[in-house]
Amino acid sequence: MTDNQNLLAEQRRALILDEVRRRGGVRVNELTRRLGVSDMTIRRDLDALARQGMVAKVHGGAVPVAEPSTHEPGFEAKSVLEPSAKDEIARAAAALVLPGSAIALSGGTTTYALARRLLDVPDLTVVTNSVRVADVFHEARPASGEGRRAPTVVLTGGVRTPSDALVGPVADRAVRSLHFDLLFLGVHGLSVEAGLSTPNLAEAETNGCLIRSARRVVVVADHTKWGTVGLSSFGTLDEVDTWVTDRGMAAEVRAEVAEHVPGLLVAGETA
């Protein structure tokens, strides 16, 4: 945002709203410095935005209005959110996969983007509970005589969710019988208090089984997932070995995450 005392109230509030949504929350003192106006002006702006249902006021600032913890968007609805960030995350995550590995990909639009980046990694065995991920590998099978072997894909079976993940007892039983080197896990939300969470109770159980069957857990999620809490938790931040995210993550959030997650890989930044 740009310091400007002469911004119209509507312009200033639009900038504040964008900052709240981008960063997951703002503080009054930060906004006064960035916009060059008084605390009282910022507090009036936050009051106006809160009355319109655009933000929720908290002590010292504001955060986005929370969706119901049971709200579960469909795959198509989620696929249009942060597409460039997901592609960057997928590219960075794909570099972690060695030829000949046994990996697992959970359901989600970011893991779907990752699957498309893994098509040229040789000799993979892919375990997934995502119909969309399985389709990526199925549709890209090499034609006869091309000289390379298609990945071996294990689709768990189960009951299909709105996000096209397969969950429930059948999926859980299949996952528990397997062991893989790397799990790439998409999540609905992450926070220090709730850990990894989803609005779908059955999906939470299946994701928990995936975590327990993996030697290494890699979360692939853009910065907007931080601070979101779904109905059911299925893991803690301390169970995550690496979080691959995008450059939209604020510095203070990175510091907080680093206290719990050994590896934070920010796609697009030099290691």
Automatic annotation (TrEMBL):
Record keywords, A-Z: DNA-binding, Transcription, Transcription regulation
One Gene Ontology molecular-function label: DNA binding
Domain (HTH deoR-type): residue spans on this chain: 9-64
Keyword Protease (UniProt): no
Gene3D superfamilies: 3.40.50.1360, Winged helix-like DNA-binding domain superfamily/Winged helix DNA-binding domain
Origin superkingdom: Bacteria
UniProt-listed Pfam families: DeoRC, HTH_DeoR
Record keyword Ribonucleoprotein present: no
Protein name per UniProt: DeoR/GlpR family DNA-binding transcription regulator
Organism: Streptomyces roseolus
